[in-house]
Amino acid sequence: MTHDLPYESHSQSGVCDRFWIAPFAIDGELLGVGARLFDELSQHWIGVCASLIDHYGPVFDQPLQGPLSHLRIKCTAVESAAMVVVYAHGQPVSSFAVATGAVPSADTQVLAMFAESIRSSTRQFQVSNIDMPFCEIAVMDQRPLMVVVPWPQSSIAEQDHELAKELG
Hints:
Layout: E1 18-23, E2 34-37, H1 43-56, E3 59-63, E4 71-78, E5 81-88, E6 91-99, H2 104-121, E7 145-150, H3 158-167
Parallel strand pairs: 1-7
Antiparallel strand pairs: 1-2, 3-4, 4-5, 5-6, 6-7
């Protein structure tokens, strides 16, 4: 069951001021769809992500530096879309895909690859009655869109789960 939040996708200037977030449970159930303002994002984390892409390019698997060196980000981006996994101490904390809408064919391809990858990676958690876990990802047409799947690792500190939420 989805819960779409009402929104205006563009500001008065015609520039997109929001993006869609679609969180999924680890078993593949869509938990809802909502909009968030770009202005609400952490400029610090946007800067961290931008510097990683600037330094390593669109495909990388790199730890953060300093006191966050226990966190690692794996990113595969193509044109207007990306798949990302955030790890803490070598264990996945959050997986997400981003589709900007700039190149629809790239968005479609990356979202389909993400759905298949996350479905395959989370088989041990798929105990519900869902016939095809994560199937809604392929038909979501909201853009820009971020699909998020948090990983339930009891050995990962809550603080690291919160950091992963801020990153994605």
